[in-house]
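ingest -> validate -> predict -> emit
validate: passed (alphabet ok, no gaps, 146 aa)
predict: started
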Amino acid sequence: MESDGDCQLSSSASSLVRIGALRRASVVAAGGALLVVLLLSPIKLCLVAVLFHVPCPGCGLTRAALALAHGDFVGAFAFHPLSFALVPLVGAVVAVHVARYVSTGTLSGAAPLPRAIEIVSAALVVLLIGVWVARLFGFFGGPVAL
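emit:
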């Protein structure tokens, strides 16, 4: 049987957990707002394009994500052919990490990734590099305009 003191301690600990989660959610919201401002600004975000004056393997993915968000599937494919796989995958990974951070305060899980996710991720990296090379030679509507 819990005494009144135990109940008050439990209540205040629960309140502190909620305050911590609220604080972390505020950090995520501020970071998201900053990201939106950066995406809408004319600043080039790709260091490869800025430093080497060639498109990087992910060039066009941000514009493709925005096109997908507006329902422009043809435009998204023109910006980057792998956007239909990469944008939802990256969105899901970010959502999982944000939810974990807000609820627990940690950025990564203790458990390693399942083998299937490692294989799919490796295949997508190989595809990303393959599409990049193909676009450098003019395939898939490339190279992307910087």
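The chain has a mean pLDDT of 82.
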